[in-house]
Amino acid sequence: MNQAIRRSWIVAISMFALVLGSLTYVQFFEASALQNNDWNTRQILQDYGKNRGAILVDGRPVAESVPSDDQFNYQRVYNEPEMYAHLTGFFSLVNGSTQLENVMNEELSGSSDDLFIDQMVRLFSGAQAQGASVELTIDPQLQQMAWDMIPEGQTGSIVVMEPDTGNVLAMASKPSYDPNLLAAHDTSVVVQNIEQLAQVPGLSIYFNPATQSLVAPGSVFKLVVAAAALESGEFDAESTIPNPPVLDLPGTDAGLPNFTTGGCAARDTADLEFALEQSCNTPFGQIAWDLGEQAVLEQAQEFGFGENFNIPVDVAASQFPTQLSEAQLAQSAIGQFSVAVTPLQMAMVSAAIANDGVLMKPNLVKAVRAPDLSIITEPEPEVFRESLSADNANQITEWMVNVVENGTARNAAVPGVQVAGKTGTAEVPEQGDNAWFTGFAPADNPEVVVSIVMQDVDIATGAQLTSPNAKRLIEAVLNR
């Protein structure tokens, strides 16, 4: 009898242990997989029914959750939606989330470890969960100006940032879209909206053009080559470089022509100051040959080329090609062939030069605040690279000032202020040109960096949409 009882107890305890083990496994080891399972309707309702935190610009919400009268309790709403769409991204039942809505999801949803105490208080009090708010570094007036400077129907991006902190003051791109079309709770309506947005030329709802689109930089890339030349020690302000009308490209029947619109033809030889001032092509092709591909590549990398990073949204790696022929290297030296950059990357090049050669990591988030408005995190300025020496940065700054005062960027000049700048025009096969301006001011104590690119434009239109708009943005910052 005792043996039978003993066996029964062993069986009962074993079954209890099995059940307990199964529950433990499900609760602790499979919890994440179950929560993320596409068929978990309860989890979907929970996620989209949360009082999600706001994304703020100067204290005003550009994305927020408001009460709704459906099963989700809250509806995500975007204010001034098209102007901020590429920054906020969207939070969608159908397509998930993008941009800040995605990378800051733990904070916005209230699930971040930084909100642990708040989570415990709400758990025991039974209060509705609430996410943290994310405050951006964006200046709303500058953002509006940048947005308005890009004509409707024009593909373009504008980035404004502080060189000494890396804080982004404005980041606007067109074409854009209304994230409210993707945040609706009626999935059939959202699907129809997505199909319609897919027909907009040049638009992707999934990426931010300023940080993720790769476009040909043209002559603004000459700043990178100038930095490589100085850093090599083989060139200085006194160096004399051949400046022929055309640079014969070895192994081809083609040549690299000089920039014909400016004053390059006035000299058979050029120093770096004149070559930048008039944006002469052939001297930079020659410099690249003298330095070699590796030196130019390494300098580009010192400015951030070739690296994916986040600010906290994802930034695509800008590209300088490798294994180049001599002809391809000369073309790459003037920002053609397969050189491709994000608009943010060219702002970073100017920012490093402006900041005595020290490149600060770009940043979009000013602070993250708990529901009681206490600060959870407040990012500090972070050094990204020491891109070049202070002496060489100051030398290039002098040359960039000359570009604005005497060269191709005269329309960026601000009365009473020294502006450092560089223009660029990239020829894109079977399209119009990419028109560029990148620069900063004041040159002796930089407060602001501006980079502008307008794609698929003719030369006259590009000139109107770049340097003059940079001047207006610089004036707006200096007059704040």
Structure report:
The longest helix is centred in the N-terminal third of the chain and has 28 residues, at 2-29. The chain starts with a helix and ends with a helix. By secondary structure, the protein is of the alpha+beta class. 40% of the residues lie in helices and 20% in strands. It is built from 20 helices and 21 strands. A 6-stranded mixed sheet has the order 3-2-1-6-16-17. A 5-stranded antiparallel sheet has the order 8-7-21-20-19. Strands 4-5 form a two-stranded antiparallel ribbon. Strand 16 (365-369) and strand 17 form a beta hairpin. Mean pLDDT is 91; it is low at 123-127.
Rg estimate, integer Å:
27 Å
Please outline the major beta sheet.
6 strands, mixed
Helix content: 40-55%
Give the overall silhouette: elongated
Mean pLDDT, rounded to whole units? 91
Assess the beta-strand content as a share of residues. 15-25%
Number of strands: 21
Number of helices: 20
Q: Quickly give the structural class.
A: alpha+beta
Distance between the termini: 93 Å
